[in-house]
Amino acid sequence: MVHSGVFWMRRFARLFGVSMAELGAWFGLMCRIDRGKELWVDVLRNAPGTDDAKRLMTRKQSRAFGTMLAMLEVA
Length: 75
Fold this sequence. Notes:
With 75 residues, the chain is an alpha+beta fold. It is built from four helices and two strands; from the N terminus they run H-H-E-E-H-H. A two-stranded antiparallel ribbon has the order 1-2. Helix 2 (20-26) packs parallel to helix 4 (59-74).
């Protein structure tokens, strides 16, 4: 599932000099490259592919996603 915010994610990541995949993970969007295509999964809404996305996320994505979840718990 491609999220409409991917365009802005790319621009903000470039602007702040951070990884687009990590920035996406902070907002609950997992990105991975499969056969040369960029795949985005909205894991907060349990979109199709959520289980695979969570299992295949990088350590940096996992850290960003976990931080976001912890902040949601506090709020």
